Model the fold of this input.
Amino acid sequence: MSTIAYAKELDLRNLPCPMPVVKISKGIKEVAVGEVVKAITTDPGALTDFPAWAKTSGHQILETETTGTEVNFYIKRLK
Amino acid sequence: MEAQLHDSLVTLFESKLSTQMLLNLETCSRCGICTPACHAYASMPLAKYAPAYRAEVVRRIYKRYFTKQGRFMPVLGEAKDITDAALVELKEAAYSCTGCRRCMVYCPFGIDTQQIMSIAKLLLIGAQAEPETLSMLADMSVSKGENIDALKEGFLSGIKRLEDQVVEKWRSQGEHPIPTDVVGADVLYVALAGAHSIIPAAAVFNAAGEKWSLSFFEAVNFGAFVGDPTKTRLILDRIVNEAKRLKVKEVCICECGTAVRVAKQLKDAPFAVVGLTEMHARYLRQGRIKLRKLPGSYTYHDPCQIARNGGVYDEPRYILRHLVEDFREMSPDPKYNWCCGGGGGLVAMGEETLEFRMQSAKVKAEQMRGSKAEVVVTACENCHTQLSDLNRHYALGQRVVFLSSLVADALIP
Done:
């Protein structure tokens, strides 16, 4: 279980393509620079989509945590 | 608008002027037959939603810069300068068109409004006025292609977690229910990010005894949605390169209309391209899979990019005739089936387009209701999302399902 503190949690489980990335892209803008969003996902593709999105949008994935069928991303807004 | 930007947009416009595009731009006789053919106009009868009006937004700019009359006497020829206001009009035209080409089927000259809208989308990109969400998604896909070696491990761990669910549907003989990176595989299957796009397809491949491999990339081409030819090519090349590396005979694209259409436009590839629906119909015809009949009443929504724009009408119906007790058409002629209202990138933009999507697809909702079917089947992610939204918005009380999911659930030894 991650100990990273987060300002916002997004439930992105079982969403159709490409909603997990669309919603994290909007959700990250709803926290202040330096704050963290926790995104709960179930898509296997999120494990490639989220790192690629973070790289192109300039944010930082602090931790990727797997719990059963879910993967939680802790993403820090950098700009 | 600054002169430099203005001039660069004129140059961009010129880059789109192929022979076919010139025919599209110079042929319209304004007969108006296309007007009621558009689902947006049929649902919201405003002039701006008539296909000929949308095309005219682009055509007037064409007249201004690329015809003699427009260059020397623009006021006489209804010609229009590229201005900031023109960009606003171009955006509304381009992103109220789903690219379904229903208007083209009705047009006596076969004018392709979707192709004309590709000019509008390219000008918006040139002016950095395209929908931010679509560019973000396209950039993400391109980045994935550039960094796949670093991302593979995470993807493989995600795939591993799906294996039990594949085996629940079909117990395969092979070691890996979801094989990846198989050099010499016959088929490279390109899915979407979601498990729903992988598990049923994997079960059917295994049931058919296919020698297949799952792609590391997602099929959807966000470059095509946003109308960026360079990104479209880069995103497609990821799959082409993977297919070449694995030396596959066929690339099978999942239930994603745009992905199927874009991949099928490939020329001189050392492999064939086929949609998942066509693959399932082939397995059935060859006796490689067997299905039990499902109870209930079903109708089928033709994804525009697969049916009207791809010619695949018979295969889903062949599958459904073997799959369900009660199949009923929602349109007397599938060629004229209404668009779901979610194509062209509208669904991918999410909630920002939801109100327009629901209003502009009222005719589709009425068509779904009119089928009196309990289940609406489709074979495209975009369509599935949009039809599900319509189902909720208009309280249709139907169930919207993927064709591949039904096939996987009906597999019998």
Notes: Chain A has two helices and four strands. The helical segments of chain A are 19-27, 46-57.
